[in-house]
Amino acid sequence: MISLLLALAVGSLFASGTYLILRRGQIKLILGLALLSHGVNLLLFGSGRLTEGRPPIFLDKNVYAETIASSLPADPLPQALILTAIVISFGITAFVIVLVNRRHTVTQTDFVHGEYVPLLREGDPFDFSDSSDNVQHDWLAYEVDEVYDSEDLLPGLPAMPESERDESTAMEEDSYQWP
Amino acid sequence: MAVSANLLAVPVAAPLLTAALILLFARWGGRRRIRHQIALTTLALCLNLAATAILFQATAGRGERFVLQLGDWSAPFGITFYGDGLSATLLLLTALVALAVYPFAVATIDYHRDRMGFHPLYLFLLMGVNGAFLSGDLFNLYVFFEVLLMASFVLLTIGAQPAQTNSGIRYVVLNLLASTIFLIAAGVAYGTLGTLNMAQIAQRLTMASPAVRTVFAGLLLVSFGSKAAIFPLFFWLPASYHTPPPAVTALFGGLLTKVGIYTLFRSFTLFFPELLVSWQPILLTISGATMLVGALGALAQPGIRRVLSFHIISHVGFMLMGLAVAQSGNRLAVGFGLGAAVIYLCHHMIIKTALIMAGGAVELHMGSDRLASIGGLVTRQPLLAFLFFMSAISLAGVPPFSGFVSKLSLLQITLDTRHWFVSGISLFASLLTMINMMRLWRESFWGDYNRPSRVPVRILQSRIRQQLMLTPVAVLVLLSLALGIWGGPAFQLSMKVAQQALDREAYIEAVSPSSPISTPGAEQPLVSLQAYFSDHPKAISGMTARPLLESR
Question: What is the value of ipTM here, to two decimals?
Answer without folding.
Answer: 0.84
